[in-house]
Amino acid sequence: MLHKLSSPQKPVQPAKKPVRKRSPKSPFSSTEALRKIRIAGFVMGLVEIVLIAVTAILYLYNIPAGFVENMNPWYWMLFVAIIAAIDLLFLWFAVAKMTKIRHRSDLDAASVIGNDVQEAYKFGEIGLAVTDDQGTVIWTNSFFRERSLDLLDQNIFDWEPKLKSFNDANLPSDFRVDFDCGGFFFSARYLPDAKLFIFRDLTDYHTIETTSEAQRLVIGFLMIDNYDEKFERSEEGNSDVLTNVRQAIIEYGKDHDICLRRYRSDSYFLVCHYSALDQIIKDDFSILKKVRQAGEGQNFVPTLSIGIAYGMDIVNRLSEMATNALNIAMSRGGDQAVVAKVGDELQFFGGKTPSIENTNRVQFRSLADSVISLIRNAPLVIVSGHTRMDMDAFGACLGIYAICQHVGKPCRIVYDMKETEMKTRSAIQSVFGKNFEKMSISPSEAAERVRSSTLFVVVDVGVPENVMGKLALEKAAKVVVIDHHRPGDKTILKPILNHTDSSASSTCEIIAEMLHYANGPRIEVSPTIATFMLSGMFLDTNFFKSQSTGARTFEAAEILKGYGADNIAADGYLKDEFEEYAYIAMLSSTVKTPEMGVVYCCASDDDKPIDDVTISKLANYYMNAKGVNASFAIGRISAKAVKISGRSDGTINVQYLLEKLGGGGHFTMAAAVLTDITPSAAADRLEDVLKNHLDQARAANVPEGGI
Fold this sequence. Notes:
Elements lengths: L29 H32 L5 H4 L2 H41 L1 H9 L2 E6 L5 E4 L15 H4 L16 E6 L2 E8 L4 E6 L1 H12 L2 E8 L2 H6 L6 H17 L3 E6 L2 E7 H9 L4 H7 L10 E7 L4 H17 L4 E6 L5 E4 L10 H16 L4 E4 L6 H17 L3 E4 L7 H10 L4 H4 E2 L1 H7 L5 E5 L10 H6 L2 E6 L13 E4 L6 H11 L9 H15 L9 H12 L4 H7 L4 H10 L4 E4 L2 E5 L9 H11 L7 E7 L4 E8 L5 H6 L4 E2 L3 E7 L3 H19 L10
Helix pairs in contact: 1-3, 3-4, 8-10, 12-18, 13-18, 13-19, 18-19, 18-20, 19-20, 19-21
């Protein structure tokens, strides 16, 4: 079948859009119209003044003759009425003109942005404001007048102070500001090329968000510290104190709209909204102080540990976070609250009392048996201390090594000579020599040898970034943490066993207790290992002179002496070289007293890096002086790192202060390492922290002058 061929057609040309010419009476002419009205008003006023002056002169000189006699009062009243009528007509005209212009600006908005777009702007509650070069608003849509906000002929930057930031020429193109004004919540952006401000009314969304945030679920746990020891097993009973503590807890819950339920003799479960938690945070968890006051006049101070979580409405997840926060509060020594928000860093409140010494030998035995059981089931054990490994970290590594030898499992100590403190490195080389190569493993090799069944033991450190075998830690599936520092917001995630005892003076003390209290045959430890562990205790207790030294510290030292520890050799490992001793004496001349009872010394910015143990000794040195409650030493430990070491007599929480600089440690012994900074700049930052946070760091319930 034949089809008729159609003739070729010309391509269809797109229709040209008509070019919209701006009429003389555009919505952008309100300023020009106002200017003309002002000129006309001035001219009219000037004409009226001249007319009145001429009439007065004619009346005064009776020109022409008989002018005064012919001007009766009715003529004067008519004259005044005519002038008043002209003024009223001019005023009516001016108001009608401006009203017409404003009305036309609304009608012409459709011609400027299009009918559909205008409707979209109204639906989306979007306002537009065009300004001239000086920032004066020359046109707006109906967005502002609907909200009784008139911006025409006003300087936009005077309307809301936050809008002044748009004058900055270095702002990114997507910069915006959010602000409250006149009961509304706006979001604003500025297009400088068009001199156009775009506003969006977010009042409803802001109200919903604020209300939703205030009603978010908060879950927490509250625990009375050392309940068994202070209340149940106490011969005195302390029933009155316990009653006061529980009454303070219940009243605090009622006052702050918190639902409290006791699920154990020493523990409470709490549920509330975020609005209640916000008030508690602003109140700085005064319940901690009220519980301490409940024990006034007694021979001990009752304290609480609180863990709280919020940020999502998944109950199981919040419960897990709250439990972890409670564990951190307890491991930091109690008497504090830890608040965890999903996706955010932990917040710490309280912590104004030193950790109470733990003398529970059942717990020591349980820890030892748990660690030994994990070691028995592991084909390989790798143990690591922290970077810049000191004698306490190395002694603890040796203690774990001795346990592995007792069980018959291979063990390797992560060792990097460059990341080991100088005195520890010197002692290792002089005592072990090349034999230490059989006991150690490099960080890179440790990462290669880690398998899913490998047991990775971390000692004397709880921050992942500070572990010497960091890469191996990231790959390890079975991790054990044994530490004596108060944990911060950065901790090793989900270890199969985490024993952080901040009441212990050193990690070597914890390991010595494990060796002694473990069930089964006696664990044999060589005198060499015992000596290194004793040296680690010497270091962290400043030869038993620090506030963290307790009865269990001397018991641990006795255990190590029973294994043949040589205290003279242990002391020798920590002795200074003559140059170091002279350097310490030289730095003592730089001591400053920024606050009463607080001193610090700072090395010169030009000084070469010094050993970090030397900095710790400087901090210890000033604690020997009367009247010194806290001391700090600042010095460069590498080309890019500066260390601040802090010590206290127990009246000031130096850990709380140095946490503000990214560090941590103990109530009376702490440190922080700052990178890409000079010692003098680090000293300035320390002074700022002392100025702003020293009052909060002062311990509660201690006599003046120290402990």
